[in-house]
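Appendix C: a fully annotated inverse folding record. The material below is reproduced so that readers can follow the format used throughout the book. The structure is listed first as tokens, followed by the designed sequence.
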């Protein structure tokens, strides 16, 4: 976390972090859904 100390935290920085967090969360949820669908197909197949 030391590298963050060099940053000046501005509203723009917080927005970027928030958007990156949201995008990461959406992407990981999408991956989970795909793996769930694949596992269901394997069970039926």
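Designed amino acids, in order:
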């Amino acid at each position: 976390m030391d590298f963050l100390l060099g940053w000046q935290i501005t509203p723009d920085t917080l927005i970027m972090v928030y958007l990156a967090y949201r995008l990461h969360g959406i992407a990981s949820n999408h991956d989970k859904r795909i793996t769930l669908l694949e596992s269901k197909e394997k069970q039926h197949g």
